[in-house]
Amino acid sequence: MAVTREYRSFAEVRAALAGRLDRAATPCLFDRIDWFESLHGHCFAEQPAFVLQVKEDEAELWLFLLPSDSRRLSALANWYSFSWRPVFLGAPRPPLQAELLEAAARHLLNGHAQIDFYPMQDRSDHMLAAFRRAGWFAVRRPMGGRHLLHLKGRDFARYWAQRPGRLRNQVRRKGRGDPFAMEIADRLTDALWNDYRHVQARSWKDAEPALPFLRDLAERESAAGHLRIGFARREGLPVATQLWTVENGVALIHKLSHDQAFDHASPGTLLSHAMFAYAIDADRVGTIDYGTGDNAYKKDWMDERATLYRVDCFNPRFASTWIPAARIAISALVG
Questions:
Q1: For a pLDDT cut of 70, what percent of the chain falls above it?
Q2: Domains in the chain, ordered, with CATH?
Q3: Residue ranges of the BioF2-like acetyltransferase domain (predicted)?
Q4: Cα gap 57→5, rounded to integer Å
Q5: pTM, to two decimals
Q6: CA distances, 299 to each of 145, 211, 274 (Å)
């Protein structure tokens, strides 16, 4: 029989996990306790944690969630999260995974009116089915995409030859005379972080809402040797920067910024050219992941788009969910 337990602090979660979602045991960055703990601490510190464990013999399910009010939960994720999914330990086979998810859904019926899970790619259909079986009214909707490049043995020269002509021409034109010095570092220093902040402050983007979270991520990945922080410089001044991580043959592109005063010279595009070349030929990655968002420029660099889904679950025991559930259902039908 499945046993469920709720945790309201990451200190309790760490003690219960005993290292089983640390880096050494967990290949995916977005499944690790470090990721969830840092995301919560830096981006959602004003909200309590809500972590659910379901255990049956040696198999376990962990759901990292966030209460937005007393009766509503969401996946513990935001725009930094490339994906969110239930985390299984003990290698349960698919039928047992389904049982654990259904047990979690039945447990959450007690006292929770609404739950949303986003961004989901893996197991969104399993989540949908399990919550429906448990008695929730659940709807799954496509919501955005995740852009991926699978190298399939290509080196950078072969990859680059297959990029759209307009991108290759832009790099050739803007790169004449080497207008920028490119730097790619795998260790974070205070000086490099100050350069990152210098560029971010002059970027076309709004002010970075969670620089401490990114600093924490960069420091952890630097210590592990997985950080790739790149700069395009003109006369020593940083004018574009990118924050990547590389691990287990996968490069993740977390953040891009450039000084908008240099838009005409395309330093961000030239830096991307250098970063892709380094990841492919020096790090020899098999996959590059541009993360969430359907920005048009990503199509020029990547080959594939994976659909992301949002799963909304409504507890029919709460009359307050009936109208929102109907609206979501209609929205899903009309696309």
A1: 99
A2: 3-144+309-334 (3.40.630), 153-285 (3.40.630.30)
A3: 166-299
A4: 14
A5: 0.95
A6: 11, 27, 18
